[in-house]
Amino acid sequence: MNIKLKIWRQKNKDTAGHFEEYSLSGIEEHMSFLEMLDVLNERLFKEGKEPVAFDSDCREGICGQCGLVINGMAHGPIRSTTCQLHMRHIAEDPSFSDGDTITIEPWRATGFPVLKDLIVDRSALDRIVQAGGYISVNTGAAPEAHSVPVEKPKADRAFEAAACIGCGACVAACPNASAMLFTAAKITHLGLLPQGQPERYIRVINMLNQHDEEGFGGCTNIGECAAVCPKSVPIDVISQLNRDMGKARFKGVHVH
């Protein structure tokens, strides 16, 4: 494959960014997308130029560390993490022809400031989780595994929500840059289990307040978040969040 790359370059969060264009030839279709970027960076390094900074860790679709907007789509043309995208997926895209330009950008959201090039600071998601606090448990000997019964439908739904890896694709895809799918997933998975009940309603208030403080937008039910989620977190977890928030207000729960 012969391709052209249009990549966002930005020195740090305090400087303005811009696009730079590169050409690559002889790219094999079996390469992963990140391997293709490695090839570009090896060439830039040999030429004495600054390599393109991007995030990745496991490269197995588990950690959520990687994340790029590729031709306007969070994680690219397949529903998976960027590290699981291969150049054959690009080649098989009907809108792509050999020699076409691939545009690569970072997640774009107020809550995700660009640190360098394609790397953004996603610590806002960590702070939302931290705002949820801890769960109350009795210390002592470990209880028998089946001593606290959990209904199968609730267990399955909690597992669906807990599959969220915090990659931030939902934010990148949302026109409002909302992190509501992420926040709802974290609230739902604890709210359906016995261990999450004592702080259930103060948790939803605290996490939603932190979500707004981080600069994320509100949810208007467009659905782009669930459409790009690599772990298929269902959009109706947001309904669960809204129900918990309504109950919290009915109960008169306030932030401590």
Entry summary:
By secondary structure, the chain is of the alpha+beta class.
Describe the protein in words:
By secondary structure, the protein is α+β, with helices and mostly antiparallel strands. The protein has two domains: 104 residues, Beta-grasp domain (Ubiquitin-like (UB roll), Roll), CATH 3.10.20.30; 121 residues, Fumarate Reductase Iron-sulfur Protein, Chain B, domain 2 (Orthogonal Bundle), CATH 1.10.1060. The protein is 35% helix and 11% strand. It is built from nine helices and seven strands; from the N terminus they run E-E-H-E-E-H-E-E-E-H-H-H-H-H-H-H. It has a five-stranded mixed sheet with strand order 2-1-5-3-4. The chain has a two-stranded antiparallel ribbon with strand order 6-7. It is elongated. The N and C termini lie far apart (58 Å).
